[in-house]
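Why should sequence recovery work at all? Because a backbone constrains its sequence more than one might expect. Tight turns favour small or flexible residues, buried strands favour hydrophobic ones, and helices have their own preferences. The token representation captures these environments compactly. In the example below, the structure is given first.
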């Protein structure tokens, strides 16, 4: 089940222990929260692998561009 609030969908996902460990490490090294990292990974995958543009929120786009 998910719900929407302010241009975002909040949802729960199940992650394998190794995946969450790496996600925590990656988000710490990047200085970003896990949601930001996951959103960025999915958008970059869509762009690189599937040649599909997913328009990021303005706040994330500004960070990626800098």
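From this structural description, the recovered sequence reads:
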């Amino acid at each position: 089940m998910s719900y929407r609030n302010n241009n975002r969908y909040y949802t729960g996902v199940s992650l394998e222990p190794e995946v969450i460990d790496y996600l925590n490490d990656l988000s710490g090294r990047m200085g970003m929260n896990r949601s930001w990292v996951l959103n960025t990974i999915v958008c970059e995958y869509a762009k690189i692998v599937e040649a599909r543009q997913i328009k990021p929120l303005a706040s994330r786009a500004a960070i990626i561009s800098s």
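A few observations help interpret the result. The chain has a mean pLDDT of 84.
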